[in-house]
Amino acid sequence: MRLAKLFLISAALLVTAAKDVEASAAVRVLTPAATLGSGPSRENSGVVASRRFEDAFWMINDSGDEPRVYLVRRDGSVYGAERGTATYLAGSEGSTRDGYETPGVLVGGAIYVDWEDIALDATFRAADASVNGLRLLVLTYGAVWVFERASLNESFFSGTARRLAIKAEQVEAACFIDAAAEQILIADESAAVFYELSIDELEPVSASELKRRHLELPK
Fold first, then answer.
1. Which of 59, 63, 199, 209 has its CA 20 to 30 A from that of 191?
2. Are residues 42 and 104 in contact, defined by beta-carbon separation less than 8 angstroms?
3. How many other CB atoms sit within 10 Å of the CB of residue 166?
């Protein structure tokens, strides 16, 4: 629980600290890597990598849909989106059944009001973290940030940081693609596309700048 709270607090504070940098940094115009298929193309607001299936991501919309979760391939296609005989995941091999036309998994009994993010554990995080908890990915409308710390007992402000100022239509969701947290996937709500970045494309933030921003945060 303490670690989960740290993720949430760190993400909120880091977003605040990022705002004045984004206006002045060199901006990267993102190029789509894939176009999203039916379902998550409506108004996606959350994405997280599947722990079981390689290059697959769970996604949600924040409005204009049913309470539904979608499993999306890295190329943007949606599992179960094929009409007639559709493939859906069942165990490691997958199965087929006739007449399955609606993609996604309907969440029974859920209240669907402005869903904004999705995670794979029991606690909400306003960002994504690497499997080992040492890297934190934070997305704002104007930049991508990755913070790294040496151990779980340390603050992300005590470690290193990288950032890349970006330009896209409306990005609201991002996650690490791989377990090593070297690749980043970003979902664009308005354009209904995926963008991909390597962590090496982000520029290092100096220790002095990171420390200054930490001290400027409200106590």
1. 199
2. no
3. 21
